[in-house]
Amino acid sequence: MKLKLIAVAALAVCGSSAFAATVVSKCVAPATSSVDLVTACAPEITVYMAGATAQLPAVTTLLTTTDAVFDLTKALAKVNKTNGLTVSAHTSMTAASVTTLNDLGAKNTEIWVGTGSAKSGSAGKRIAVVYNYANGSFAGVKQLIEAKGTGAFEENSQGLLTAAQQKVAATLSCVRTSSSDWAAGTTPTVPVYSCAGNAFNYLKAAPAGGVKGVQLALADVAPNQAALGVLTAGKWTAAKFPMTVTGMQGFGVMVNDLALQALIKREVAAGRMAATCDGATKVTAQTLTAACQPNVTHADMAALVTGKATAALISGDSTDTTAIVYHRRVAMSGTQASSNIAWAGQAATEGFKATDILAGKVKATGFLTLSDVGTTADGSGNYLLASADGKFISSAKVSSSMVISSVAAETGKYAFGVGSLEKTWNATKASSGILGASFVKIDGISPNFDKAGANDAKHRVGMNNGYPFQFEMVALKNALNSKTPAVESVVNAIVTGIVDPVYNLAGIAYMGTPAVDATADEVAKYAKYTRGGLGNNYAPLSVK
Length: 544
Known about the structure:
15 helices; 21 strands; 22% helix
């Protein structure tokens, strides 16, 4: 079939090109031009995945630097939806909140389009891998296990189109946002295209093989560990949705500058930290060291997240009246589920759900049990709940980056939050991956400093020293993938890849066993602790 370009328009603007085309179902041959690949070549195999952001670096590396899925001697491109076109709600929020949110759906869906490698099982075929990483671990798991049909919200949030939209055959309008094209045989910068209109109208309306929803979900913790009410009870079974533990993922408690100073003052006054540790100096110079990194205990965190902490607990000063704010994720987040498990023992208690916040009905028995005083939205997808005396405020955020930036920017209050340790920290806080906030020790163990006092960029030394805030993350597949061997092969290649320690991701300790002749650096990549396997994160941390 001849290549059919309905319209092609190119112009040079600061190294970018703009074009519009209607995508056809077949190409004369696998494209070697990334422009043709994006605008004129409908993928023959499409794999849909969703869930946690923690594995996005591994997925990106796997797809763009190895031949696990794509033939890197052929064209490869990444497609994003143009930002700001659609406003949609986070899956755990009510329709009333839609207008306060940014587009959390297709804006944060990435599509890699290329030609299959021999390892993918589909050599020479055009493959698209679609990954929605916006809405949290359980938004992805929900899409998998609840098997929503085409057109359901979960699929719309992922960038899929309904059958009716498919029939419209709307023009695809794209702008290349990177400066150079694919260079085969090199270590390339994959060209990125930002597309508007029915941006993904060249993808199938639903996955093949009878699968509805997604074919692969990545989550920080197992599906049975979501906040109650997030996932439909009894839907997940290992037979229908096989689960692989992909690694131990660490999380860090972070604080703003005011809380950092107060905690250091508390530790010095209690004789647990040298008098030479001065919080004001550390904040001004941005030179926090291992010796002066303050500590919070499990009891501190349990009091904090259940709304029982006072300023005196933070500073050690009984006259302190500073307000405390805890910036947290919504219930769909695996980071939030991890916090619930770690600090509130939430094996049998209800989560603090955004839907309840909006309705003013927070009645949780475990996590953040606060007075029912009503709620407000601040216009940026943040949902607030204050304790009756106004001294404790919880703010539920729709993304990890919002939690981190909000903690760092908070002034006049002691601010706390949690982020996964793929967000790397360095002593120059303003340029660190946690945007100016600081990690603290938990029960005396640092997430980022080793025992010699050096900052570990991968944050794995702390995890292997017994850092307590780490959990088994998982990948879940749909057993129906087997009906489409080409799809199953790609899914298996992705799961096999992300558990491979060769990618050496920050904040993740790998679950396998190092080779007998492994170097010390290679051995250090592997987890020394487990939670018992199969996502049993309620179990105590134990040596493997």
